[in-house]
Amino acid sequence: MAALPRSSPYHFARQLEKATGLPPSSRVILCCAERAKQLVQTGCDFSLVEVATHAGFSDRSQFSYHFKRLIGVTPRQFQRPARIA
Fold this sequence. Notes:
The protein has 85 residues and is an all-alpha fold.
């Protein structure tokens, strides 16, 4: 999108932050955490490492850190009620 005429990547990032309230990197992390949340809620048989990979995180520690920061509980805590249901 930043390749549009008269739009630099810096300008695009500023406009995106202005429109969404989040810088692009935070927006990507939020989308990855939401995707991981969906994967766990659907009851798929993925391990948490596989969920992290499918959601776009590079490793499980990064996944756990951002998931807990954004969702409020660890991925394991979030996963347990989904398995009971």
